[in-house]
Task: inverse folding
């Protein structure tokens, strides 16, 4: 049976989707962008601040499901410009232990919701 995961500590979905769906021990998050859940505003001052907000949003969703970044099996990172990869990776790396980091892909895309620079989704397991 699937369980819908939603928390007020992450942005309210801007379409017909849930923040995450859990089935058994597996959790599938929707892609998060840098919306501050308290203000509803985009955090776009720098790619580093934007990435940090994305990761904090994902942290909140994982927490609502009783998980943290150590439970993440795979991430998908979508960038509007691959030139931002290094800066995004620096922030992303602070959330994981390199020895047990999840599998990951990073791709450049033509555009992202609200014209942000980065979107990240995750698959996690208890």
Result:
């Amino acid at each position: 049976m699937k369980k819908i995961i939603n928390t007020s500590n992450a942005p309210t979905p801007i379409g017909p989707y849930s923040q995450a769906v859990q089935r058994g021990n597996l959790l599938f998050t929707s892609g998060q962008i840098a919306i501050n859940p308290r203000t509803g505003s985009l955090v776009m001052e720098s790619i580093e601040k934007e990435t940090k907000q994305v990761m904090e949003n994902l942290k909140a969703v994982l927490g609502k499901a009783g998980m943290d970044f150590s439970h993440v099996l795979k991430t998908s990172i979508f960038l509007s410009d691959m030139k931002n990869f290094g800066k995004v990776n620096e922030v992303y790396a602070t959330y994981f232990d390199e020895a047990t980091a999840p599998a990951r892909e990073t791709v450049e895309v033509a555009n992202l919701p609200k014209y942000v620079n980065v979107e990240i989704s995750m698959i996690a397991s208890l």
In short: The chain has one domain: 2-125.
